[in-house]
Specification:
Low-confidence stretches: 203-212
Strand content: 15-25%
Order of helices and strands: HEEEHEHHEHHEHH
Largest sheet: 6 strands, antiparallel
Helix content: 40-55%
Number of strands: 6
Number of domains: 2
Distance between the termini: 24 Å
Radius of gyration: 23 Å
Oligomer: single chain
């Protein structure tokens, strides 16, 4: 029964598998995902802002391929931090310090409750399309059932995609460095964790074992 649920879940995912740090989609396309740091533009001086705008324009003008920029905002989970404060409070011999820590703990808890502190993460997706692979767009039929496996062998797709994706990745890393940003490619385990969190946004704690297996089952060893 569990295997049937897992199979049914995967039928509704566009992802076919994840291996060697690349996401393979069922239509033959694939992509790599990069995590990048961020800068606070408003805190820069006028000269630094101008330089950043110029560097960003240079990045856009240098692209001969498409990219996608994803910003994920998630409510910050501070339970571990509060637990750490509780340990410190219990271990502190000074009553005065303990009172200060209790007041600080209450401040942090109320701050998060009232303002919903968000954690933002920034990603760049570099795609390799099915058309680049050689799949003709003329075969597209909007009424046809979505494919459940790529049209070519994965080794062949990976070889073709790697030749295009890795130079694009290196180019993005260099261009982002000009902006003062550090970009790095997500590994296979990091990709699994990312997609698992995306498909289970409500609560990772309440996700079923079938959902867990469906995401984990995407990984090709």
């Amino acid at each position: 029964m569990a295997d049937n649920i897992k199979a049914s879940t995967q039928e509704h995912l566009d992802i076919y598998t994840i291996r060697n740090h690349i996401v393979f989609l069922k239509d033959g396309s694939c992509a790599l995902v990069m995590r990048t740091t961020a800068i606070n533009f408003n805190l820069l001086s006028e000269e630094e802002q101008d330089a950043t705008i110029y560097a960003y324009a240079g990045l856009l003008n240098s692209l001969s391929f498409s990219i996608q920029i994803l910003i994920r905002s998630q409510r910050k989970n501070i339970s571990d931090y509060l637990d750490l404060l509780d340990v410190r409070i219990q271990a502190t011999p000074s009553q005065k310090v303990k009172e200060q820590l209790l007041a600080y703990r209450q401040f942090v808890k109320s701050l998060v409750k009232e303002n919903r502190v968000l954690e933002k993460k920034f990603y760049v997706i570099v795609p390799f399309s099915a058309i680049e692979l050689g799949v003709s767009s003329s075969t597209f039929n909007p009424l046809a059932k979505s494919p459940q496996k790529p049209p070519f062998d994965l080794d062949y797709i990976e070889e073709k995609a790697s030749m295009a994706l890795y130079p694009r990745r290196d180019h993005i890393i260099r261009q982002f460095a000009r902006l003062g940003l550090k970009a790095s490619q997500l590994t296979t385990p990091e990709l699994v964790n990312l997609f698992y969190s995306i498909y289970n946004q409500s609560s990772a704690a309440t996700a079923t074992s079938a959902q867990t297996k469906a995401i984990s089952g995407l990984v090709s060893q």
